[in-house]
Structures are given as C-alpha cells and as structure tokens.
Amino acid sequence: MNEAVENKTMTFKEQLLENDRKFRETGCYAGITALTYREDDPLRYESLHTKLRSMTIAAREMARSISASPGVREVGEMVVALYTPEGDAISLSTGIMVHVHTMSRFIKWMIQNGYEESPGICPGDVFANNDAFIGTVQVPDVMVVVPIFHNDELVGWAGTVAHELEVGGITPGGDVYLAQERFTEGLFVCAEKVGENDELRRDYLIRLERNLRMPIYWMFDDKAKLAANLELRDQVKELIDEVGLDYFKRATREFIEEGRRSQLSRVKQLMVPGRYRGHTFYGHLTEGKPGILPLGDENLLYSIPLELDVGGDGQMHLDFEGTGSWGYHSMNCTPAGMDGGLFVTLTQSMNFEGKVNDGAWLATDMNLPSGTWTNPDRHTVATATSWALLLPAFGIFQRLISRGFVSRGFKEEAFVGQVNSPMVEMGGQSQYGSQFGMAMFECSAAGSGALGIKDGIDNGYVGWNPESDMGNMEVWEQGIPMLYLGRSIAADSGGVGRNRGGTSFTSLWLVHNTDEVTIATSEHSSRVFDNAGMCGGYPAPTAHRHFTVRNSNMKQLIEEQKPLPHSLGNDPHITDLERLVEGDQKEVEGPHIDRPLQSGDLFAHSYNGGGGYGDPIERDPLEVVRDVENGYVTAEIAQRAHAVVLEYDEKRNTWSVNKTATEARREEVRKSRLSKAMPVEDWIESERERVLEGDFVTEVRKMYQDTMSISNHFATEFREFWNLPDDFTM
Q1: Is the N or the C terminus of the chain less surrounded, counting Cβ atoms within 10 Å?
Q2: Three-state SS for 400?
Q3: What global pTM score does this model have?
Q4: pLDDT digits over 125-144, tens only?
Q5: How far apart are CA 588 and CA 289, in angstroms?
C-alpha cells in the first residue's frame, strides 16, 4: 500500500498520531530518513518550494490591500502560511513570523479534539481561533484557516493571522491592559467553524458587530484573511494538478525534514556546544493605578532566568526553570505564545533565508514549568499583553545565541536584539461622534539592540514584526481623535556601547474633537532594565514615564501664533510641555491608566531603544559627536557615559571633540574602574550578608519567595550559590 492510499484510509487524528509515532521512532519528520526528492531532482524540488512561498507572499499582499485596518495595511501585521493535513508548517509568507507553530497548534488541536466528526471538516469550511491556550499568542492575534481538499482528500491547510486593533475587552484596543482574568480579555473565538461554502457565517459577523467597539477592523481583516486563504488554496490545488499529488505530499514533508536538518546544521556551524546562561528582570508598577482589580493591585517584579543547552548534534534546549508564577495580570503567556517568541528570534538570527517551517521547531525544545507565567496551569489566566514578559525572555535567548556566534568567531552575526515595545491603546468617543477603540501600532518602529559590528537600527525595529513600519501619522489620525504635534527621536533611548543601541521615538498628541478618550499603555518595564547590553554594552533605559496636560492653553497659543511643543525636548530637567504650555501637568510612572482626556489635552508617550555592544568608552569620539549633532545622544550622556570631552561652538551651532582631553578623561575612567574593582569572592561574601538578612525591598523579597516556592531546583541552586543554610527561606 503506498503512502497516498494508506493515508486515505486513516482518520485525520490517526494520521497525526502516525506522524508522531514515526518521528519518535526515527527522529525524522514523518519518518523521512532520506531527502530522496531533493537528491534525485533538486531543481524540481526547489522550484516547488519557491512556488509555494511565492503563493503565500502574493496572498498576503493581496489581503493587505483588502484589509481596512491600518495595523495590516500600514504596518503589515499579517502572515499567510501553508500547512500539512496534520497541521505542520510547510511554507510561510513574509510578515509576523511569530506564527510558524502557533497555527500548527490550532489545527492540531481541532484534529485531536475530534473536529472531523463534529463540527466536521469539509471543503469550503472556515475555522477561526484567538484562544492562546489552543494556539495563538494573545487575544488580538485572530487566526483564520481553511482546509485544502484535492479530490475529496485533505491535503493541507491554508492559514492567515492578523493582529486585531480592537477586541472588546475591559480596556479598549487589542492588548487589553487591565485584563486580569480571561473573563475581561474581550471576544474569544475558540477554534470555531465560522464559515461554510467559502463564506463567513452571518451569525459570526453579527457576533463581531455586537461585541466590539470598532468591529470594522476585525470584520474586514477576517474577510482579507479568508480571501488570502482561498487564493492560496486554489493555487495549491492547481499546483498539485501540475506536479501530481504523490509528489506534492512527499516533497512538502521533505521540506519540513530539510528544515529540521538545516536548523541542526546551522547551530553546529555557528555555535560552540555547551551550556549558556542568562537572566533578566521585568518590573511593573501597578499598585494603586485606576481600574486595577483587588487581586492584582500590587507592583510586580519578575525574575526571568534562561539556560540554553546546545548539543553537539545542534539540538537546542531552552529551560525557563526558576521563573515566576502566573499572576492576576495580562502579561502571562502560553506555550503557544512561547513558540512565537522562539520563532521571532530564530527567523532573525538563523532562519532568515525564507525556508523556515516546523522543522526548526522539531530541532528545538523548551522546558516551560507548569504554573509559571510561561505555562499557566489554568486556562482562565489572562494573556492579553503576553509580549510584556515574552520579549524580555527571548531577548535573553537572542543574546545567548549571539554569545555562541561570537565564541565561534562569527562576531558579525552577534545581535543584542529585541526589547519590549510599549503599546498605546485608547477608546471612547471618536472625532466623528461614534464609539471607538484602537491599538496604536506605531510601536512597530522602535530601536533594535546593537550588532557586533555596527550600531543598532534607529526607529525601525521591533522583534515581533521584522518589517517594522510605524505607519503614516495622517492614517492614524483618521482612526483616533488625536492630532500629532510631533514624532521625534528620543535622545539617549539607545543603550550606550562601542556600538550603541538603536534609538526610539516619542509621540506627542493633541486630543481633538472628543469629550472622552481613555488611554491605557502596556508592555513596558519600570525601575529595572528588562533587557541588557552585551560584551560591556549598557542596557537601554526603560520607557516608563508618560506626560499629560489637561485644561491646556493650546487654543490660545495657536490663536496667538506662539511656539507649540512638538516633543518633550532634550532637557532632562524640564520638558517642552512644562516650558511652553500652561495647564494641569501630570507625569505618570509606569503604565498610563488615568481619567479620560478631552479636546485640548496633551499626551506624550515614548518607546524603547535597544542595548549597546562593547565598552562605551571605546566608541569612536567622532561617532559620538555625530550622535550629539543628530539628536541621538545628549551632550551630557556623551560626556558621562562615553567619556568624550565636547566643545560647543555657539556661533556655528556645532560640536567638536577635544581629543587630548578625551584621551585623558578615558584614561581617568579606566583607572577609576580599577580602583573600584574587587575580587568576585569578596563581593559575593559582602552580598551574602544582605541575602541572609533579607535586606531587600518588598518587590524583590516577594519575587524570591515566589521563585523559591515554585522551583526546588532554583531554591537549591540559590542556597548553594550564596552558601546559605539548607532551611533558608526568603
């Protein structure tokens, strides 16, 4: 019996189990131990893959032109992918590469839960999901998939994901900041059949209309996703007619096995085998903020350790043992979401040639301890802003594999990587008088970490969307009752280093033509760095302060044609809002959630830059002075952090370097460092006393209490490191 005949006699679930059995027994995807099609006729083999990838890319671009959402049209928050009948990713378009395996989980979940029998999987059916415990990252990541049948046989799935800008949660927007349990996250579609005969069901669309503040975005995005899937499905069927079904089925499985082998090969080539360890922290100021429910009314501090084992065969194992428990907030993550973090990192470091698929997932595994924020042990936990913890976690992963690259001699591949990307969301009364809700995706163009051989990307990078476009201000103004007074580079927002981190930007808005707009921000760390630099580079500062002016005199300033603020300015001691505008000024540390704003009020928000690489006092002074003149770095930081002595020509408004004084200053800094140095053993002994006495602020003490109670492994290692009694507790 050949493979095609054999599969036609199996149920979908039996096919899935058979694939899993073959992998366990052979270590190769679907039991494919030799890439015979690739070896026998590589041109035909590669041609098929190129055509499939081209189809996914073309389908995505078509869908972007259909969508009404600026998140999809402007920023490109969408990906289209092709899957095997068992739900394994074969080929993906460009776009949000987060979802290589998240949609796999969604399709597999339906098969494992008997969807073949009820509600049935038939030609023309349409299924949707945004439940992260089934298979996505967070509630706004809504997936639409359609089965691909060829002569009554299921031969694959076409799937599309887009990030929705409004999901009907407790706070307006997509990343529902105030969600503290699932029941406040908004509208869930839990692996549902939402369409038949290639059309979305009317009752599903009515549900969207009646449960969202601004349903047009989700509804048109779903129609765009369905159009992309149908286009991909029909083209795949035509391609099968051209190459033959047996060839298609075998070749697409070889693509995945090739992906697995390529992943192992790259790791062996680029990294030194061994154990890599890293750690970061994430702080969140919640206590006393308006709208926080009693269960979550406390400040949060998360410890995120990561141990990466790289085997001699190229297999990577990520272990998050020792991280904290899930909590009553929206920043928890599911295993599907952690898959997303894994793939946004892999696709920007090792798998960037366009052939990434589920093969890479098979060559990597993760330990996500049950009960932690990485793997909550109940499905009622909120995950709406899971990127808040996910991005710092995989920022560590990025730096660990970069250490591996540097160790192997591939310094040019080192990338300090991704940082958190704070999100601004809002809702209330629109400028047209109707209700609205909106997630501002201009955060898609923050700053990247530095690279081993050059500076990070300024105002053009986020980890979760490598296309990174902030969108036109005029387009965003059509969707929100606020006018841009300016977008400006946020000086000093990149971490200093021999190669500095990429800078981010600040937006300043004037609230316009509304009596009520509520703004909630999320996904930014406060008081601790949520990411680091590398090889002596410093972390970037956290984006942790928001500025508002209520009852401003902006109307008077405009009428009198007086200077208006367009940014916060570069004076760290006084903002341009304070300098130029009269009104009720307020500065909010941490996430902004406050009383609604109205016409004439001002609001400013800053995004994150990336960490630096290398010692900052080794940076070329001429590069430093260029940074100062271009507004990337202030003169104060240039002199304090880079130890560059600058001179300002007031007449010509230019800066220059005093080379002699700079050399002397840098030598002074080096001597100062040596004078402060102490043996590590002495430092550990001095800090041990603090640990014994529990001499920590409340948040730090709670963090250690949590991690030591949830992880015996972490508690044992903690006691051994600090030479503490066996019965020590925090």
Answers
A1: N
A2: helix
A3: 0.95
A4: 999 999 999 999 999 999 99
A5: 10
